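Hey, sorry to bother you again with one of my protein questions. A protein chain has come my way and I'm curious about its shape. It would help a lot if you went through both lines with me. I owe you a coffee for this, so here goes:
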Amino acid sequence: MTQPTAFHEAVSAISYPMVVVTAAVPGGERSGCLVGFHTQCSIEPARYLLCVSRVNHTHRVASAASHLAVHLLDEADEELATLFGEQTGDEIDKFARCAWREGPFGLPVLEQPRAWFAGPVHARADVGDHTAFVIEPVAGAVAGPFTQLGFQQVRDMKPGHPA
């Protein structure tokens, strides 16, 4: 099915903020991917919605994970965005190519981004070619101000998997 032309043109002009979502499951498997579809979806209780493509390696890990981490990207994080957006965990260990540490809930927390948060997955829903994950942020850190990395800055990337 093709997208209506007006819709495609309109949303292609938006500069969604980009994040990296990371997941881990017992046994040590971990994954992460660049995500453009995400938003806060509740104030009280705090909830955050993330949409991950179903063809993505991270989707398989996130679907089995009890918690997820979200890393907010600065313009200076474009190389990290390229790693998590253009490479696939089906072929490489992305974490071997960047600085990270084990964070809360055994999640991989990337060292470079200035802000991140993590929490348990409260809901999952099929939303087309993506799955929506709703998390409750209960841990995280912010290390000063940053200028968000937006979709327009990464739109020419070649994804590790088709959307």
Observations:
- The mean pLDDT is 92.
- The radius of gyration is 15 Å.
- The CA atoms of residues 91 and 161 lie 11 Å apart.
